[in-house]
Amino acid sequence: MKNVRVLVLGGYGINCDVETGWAFEMAGADTVETVHINRVIEGDVSMDDYGIVVFPGGFSFGDHISSGRVLGIKIKMELGEKLAKFIADKKLVLGICNGFQVMVKMGLLPGGKISHAFNDQSVTLVHNDSNRYEDRWVTITKEVSNKSPFLKNIAVLPIAVRHGEGKFMANSEEINRLEKSGMVAFRYTTTDGNPTQEYPANPNGSINAIAAITNQAGTVLGMMPHPEVYISKTQHPHWTRENDLPEEGMGLQLFRNAVDYIKHL
Amino acid sequence: MVFRVEVSLKQTIPDPAGLATKRRIFTDLGLDKVKNVRVLKGYLVDIETFKERDLERTIHALFSDPVVEMVDTGENLASLFSWDWLVDVSFLPGVTDNEGKTALWGVRTILGGEKAQEDRVFSSRKYLLEGEITEDEIQRISQDVLHNTLIQKVTVISRESWDNGRRVGSSVPRVEVISQPTVEEIDLALSDDELLALSRSRTLALNLEEMKAIRNYFSDTDIQKERLKKGFPTNATDCEVEVLAQTWSEHCKHKIFAADIEYEETQTGKKESIKSLYKTFVKQVTKDLRSDRPWIKSVFHDNAGIIELDDDHYFAMKVETHNSPSALDPYGGALTGIVGVNRDIMGVGLGAKPIFNTDMFCFASPYYSGELPGANLMHPARIFRGVHQGIKDGGNESGIPVVNGSIFFDNRFIGKPLVFCGTGGLMPKKVAGRPSHKKRALVGDFVVMTGGRVGKDGIHGATFSSEELNESSPVTAVQIGDAIVQKRMLDFILEARDLGLFSAITDNGAGGLSSSVGEMATDTNGVILNLEAIPLKYEGLQPWEIFISEAQERMTLSVPPKEYAKLLEIAAIHEVEISNIGTFTDSGYLEVFHDNNPVALIGMDFLHNGLPTYQLHAVWDPKEREEWHPEGDVNLNITLLDMLGRLNISSKEEWVRQYDHEVQGRSAGKPFCGKDMDGPSDAAVVRIEPTKLTAVVVAHGLRPVISDIDAYNMTASVIDEAVRNAVSVGADPDFMSGLDNFCWPDPVYHPEKNRDGKHKLAQLVRSNKALYEFCKSYGIPLISGKDSMKNDYGSGENKISVPPTLLFTLISKMDNVEKMITMDVKKVGDVVYLIGSTLDELGASEYAIYHGKKAAGNAPTVNSELFMDSYRKLHKAINANLISSAHDLSDGGLAVAAAESAFAGGFGMKIDLRAMPLDAAIDRDDIALFSESNGRIVVTVKEGMSEQFEQIMAGLPIGRLGEVTSSNLFKIIGLKGEMILSLSLDEMKTAWKTPMSKMQ
Fold first, then answer.
1. Does any CB of chain B come closer than 8 Å to the CB of residue A246?
2. Lowest pLDDT segment from A176-180, B45-49, B745-749
3. Where are chain A's structural domains?
4. Which of A156, B46, B192, B693 has the smallest CB count inside 10 Å?
5. Angle between helices A17-26 and A252-263 (to 10 degrees)
């Protein structure tokens, strides 16, 4: 079995790096390091040494111009090749919230084939229909057609969304392609698992309630909701009410899946 | 050449920003004629080396989103839409333009090449409004909704003139300053009147005694000799006068809290001399309590108080106010408020990491419909919205969750809103082998400024907030923050801290470098500074401006020379600008130079100890108190719905949800709880780490209106409110510390400008007496605090003063977070108990105000010994797992608290008032239901646990009121045994949610 080393990127207004690191530690990763993007660009830290790279949530560059845009430019220009090789090696990349926005804006998601990680931007995440940032808990449900290693043993997941620009949009052909190729990972649903366009269950008006997608190989996952803040029971807003909540935070499974996959890669 | 780039959503895509603008025009101005609004983004690229072909490379990659947007390199997009008026809003020269800065950074990343200091990108917005709007109306929309004249420039174009070819154009808002740096000498050999005139004309906010002290210092022959020897003129310089004014400002030196006060009570004839309220009451209570609380680590001398939380961590907390800036520019004022108090935590000890924010606001009603009392005042709805946006952006962008707060409304806040911003932070007990709560600058250390550049922003912030607002308040006092610049600095500082690269750190807040360096230099007794080493936003600042500017996102480090190279290296990784601007010395002087020219030389002792003490007079002569009792028959169903819909009681969820309250992953007790996650939590519970059971509890009390009766009762009440809020979630009542934030109207008597100054000072004295007395009896050491003393608008007869306000913030902890409980009822069959007696205390209650009364009736009182006994016992019951919900009784009393618990939990409730522990004289149901007596908590006890609960609470006033029911109804049996109230959960919740969402 392989040693699982996780590289959590930080800097420029990324701000969920610490708790994302905790999630991987709890999930059993051997090493979790939070590193400023510039140290990877400078070569002080080499992506090759890791099995998982994470673009955490936050407000890179203050969401100015549009969320994820400017950090995406920097990463694509200065780390694009390394990232493409990393993905070609079938290693895992996870982007959460702002990390998802970065991946989408630089064309890493939905991306091309595994040998060609980047594509022109074909989907986007724009201002919520409500035109405001909101922090609330919703339910997301895994799309069964998606075979990503991130998604094993996950079905319905209560989870926090915390964003102002999370409305997933693309033209209808692209949406079709994603759905047909099993690249949709999660949708916003009612608590019993039915996709919904209704606010606030669908918190931003995303087309076809899409909350998360992967690349075709399922090794690159981007999602608006925050699984890293449901790694312990006391993070759920109902934990003082419901005695049937699992003792373990339900978001943890996603991180454990990633760790297990790399362990056996 | 300047290039314009404009971006719009494609025509087929609805524009949420436009819809929100349309809604705002309707809610704020009542104008329903606007049919449609589109918002276009604009960028003026002003980069020397930027060429036509660079446009192609950047407009698609950087400025626009290919999936949903279209982009143009001119002003042609607007023509594609149907509209009647166009309003273009851009920043005035020198105003912080965060989006422009990011755009410049993006252009440089794409193009590479030389980076010129003068390069700029300026951002702007075009609003396209469709509808039959008159010219007057578009001016109002522009003025009251779309821009702030203090920071923004506006161009309004009608469709007709647009079609005739009129455009906004591409003139850029560059700061053009032509003045050469000079140091002006100021001859202080002036008459008293002339000294006062000088204080006024330079916004020094110094009184005659203080001006005289400065004059005497500079006329001292020994001082003059020393000055000549060091190459300084014998006259004071402009910089010296300014530095003294900043350092001696009310804002920085708290002169009123340090004053000698003669206090007298006319009714009792009692007289008392008080030497410093701060020393006598605030500091004293901590001194008295400290000996058996070894966990108090650092209080009163650093940026924030520090306590020990568990084996590994220290916790620091600070609460600040940003009232005056928020009145002028609500967004910028609140944003700089929150990021400013974050810096206090970043600069406490050797640096702590902010883990949560708190915020409390006091505004006039957002539905205020009268005349605004001053020409430069904004409508309270606009202030509310701007402040909220500032806190939201500041907290969310920094990745610091806002976990606790409140919004209080009273129309006396129309002249000055109160904006309290608090931050709690964590640090490891040791960093780089040193105890983290101690720091000391060393002789020979470099003075290192880190963070943003210096401009004219925020000049005179400290002195201007030390005066009342008026129509000529200075515009330069306005600042806009950049949370991302600060976040980068935070990442940098934490890394440098852990490597032990600095000996001391402090933030640059009010007074800028002059205050931060001036204070740090007391460690070594001197400092020498070279102002030319300070990076500027633009040329042309005068040396004194550089030194006192409150430009944001800056901190000062004291760095041993051998560590400087490493520090530079780390700063480069984080793209944080740092500069070595001087050296700490033991010369006894603050010495400042600019290109070797003498700028300031002030003795350290005079700078910090030369300030004369105020001599003030306080007279307590309360008006004859008006009795008030409700009369006649009252329909309690209607009354409770009305009460739930009162602004101060109603749900603030619409607004609070817009704050990230969960980032950093520590949240266990969130702002909302209950079945639909909308019940109002009493306090926030924040875990230290996800694998540790220790959690911090933060709660607060805020009840300004009680000061209308007596600030003594107000103070006792807010302390108790904070304690019972904390205890209600499970906090340990034997581990508490407090923070006091006073926001007072000017308490310094002046025969014309401030005739009731003596009364307001007496209120302050009484508040301090209560603060000491109740903190002592509750066992709450004060670890930090702040006061803001000039919360008035205008002067003389037309003055509007805020009610004397104390925000009391309480910090407690839980050793086992899993014992935490929330306010929502959980289960049918659970038994409802009321802890605490209800007295006839409707004075200043929401119910009294509902009936048009304020100061009439009895103010709530505090029986600290009894209350504390019940809190300790409740804590025991919580730890014994007997309690399923607890909710503190505050605004609206029992009726509101019990209703909230019921509808938050989604179950009915039936309670009987005859079981209440009640003052025998009370015979009216409405008094029992709405009295705001302190010390009361409504709890539900798990089915079958009542006996155990009653045993624990034996000897205390508790009442078994009823139980949680499976119905959808909230029912109350009155004192005469009849059903007096029956409402469905839904109608109560709707009434409670409506008022604050209406103005969204």
1. no
2. B45-49
3. 5-263
4. B192
5. 60
Contacts of B290 (CB under 8 A, 6+ apart): B296, B781
Fold equal for B3-163 and B821-1000? no
Nearest CA in chain B to A97: B663
> Are B135 and B84 contacting, i.e. CB atoms less than 8 angstroms apart?
no
Here the tokens at position B831 are 């038994």
Residue B113 phi/psi, 5-degree rounding, is 80, -170
Residues A142/A184, Cβ–Cβ less than 8 Å? no
Pick the closest to residue A205 from B42, B395, B999, B19 (CA basis): B19
Give me the residues of A, 48-87, that contact B with CB < 8 A.
57-59, 61-66, 69-70, 73-74, 77
* Residue A196 touches partner B, C-beta closer than 8 Å: no
For residue B606 the two structure tokens come to 């005079």
Alpha-carbon torsion angle B879, B881, B882, B883, nearest 10: 80
Q: B483-532 pLDDT, tens per residue? A: 999 999 999 999 999 999 999 999 887 778 888 898 899 999 999 999 99
The residues near B170 (Cβ < 8 Å, ≥ 6 apart) are: B2, B3, B4, B44
Q: Which class for B408: exposed (0-12), middle (13-18), buried (19 or more C-beta within 10 A)?
A: buried
> Token digits for B830?
């659970």
Residues in CB range of A132: below 8 A, 6 or more apart: A164, B20, B658
**CA neighbours closer than 13 Å in the CB half-sphere of residue B953:** 27
Residue B66 burial class via C-beta count within 10 angstroms: exposed 0-12, middle 13-18, buried 19 and up: middle
Neighbours of B732 (CB within 10 A): 18
Q: Regarding beta strands B792-793 and B908-912, do their DSSP bridges make them parallel or antiparallel, or are they unpaired?
A: unpaired
User: In chain A, which residues have their Cβ closer than 8 Å to the Cβ of B574?
Assistant: 11, 36, 38
Chain B hits for A26, Cβ within 8 Å: 690-691
Confidence of residue B716 (pLDDT cuts 50, 70, 90): very high
User: Is B136:B156 a contact under the CB 8 Å cutoff?
Assistant: no
Contact assessment for residue B725 and residue B682, using Cβ atoms and an 8 Å cutoff: yes
Structure tokens at B540: 């042309």
Reduced to 3 states, what is the DSSP secondary structure of residue B538? coil
A178 and B CB contact within 8 Å: no
Q: How far is residue B160's CA from residue B155's CA, in Å, rounded to a whole number?
A: 15
- Residue contact B17–A131, C-beta within 8 A: yes
> Using the beta-carbon criterion (under 8 Å), do B109 and A70 form an inter-chain contact?
yes
| Chain B residues 43-62 with a CB less than 8 Å from chain A | 61-62
Each residue of A119-152: pLDDT tens digit?
999 999 999 999 999 999 999 999 999 999 999 9
Q: Quick one: CATH architecture of A5-263?
A: 3-Layer(aba) Sandwich (3.40)
Q: How far apart are CA A174 and CA B105, in angstroms?
A: 31
Using alpha carbons only, give the angle B986, B638, B939 rounded to the nearest 5 degrees: 60
Q: Does the pLDDT value for residue B469 go beyond 60?
A: no
Please name the CATH architecture into which domain B821-1000 falls: Alpha-Beta Complex (3.90)
Nearest to A68 by CA among A113, A105, A119, A28: A105
Domain spans in chain B, listed from the N-terminal domain onward:
3-163, 821-1000
Q: Which fold has domain B3-163?
A: Mth169; Chain: A , (3.30.1280)
Select from B546, B528, B526 the least CA-distant residue to B538.
B546
pLDDT of B259-295, one tens digit each?
999 999 999 999 999 999 999 999 999 999 999 999 9
Cβ-based contacts under 8 A for chains A and B:
177
Count of all residues that appear for chain A in the document: 265
Percentage with pLDDT > 70 across chain B: 98
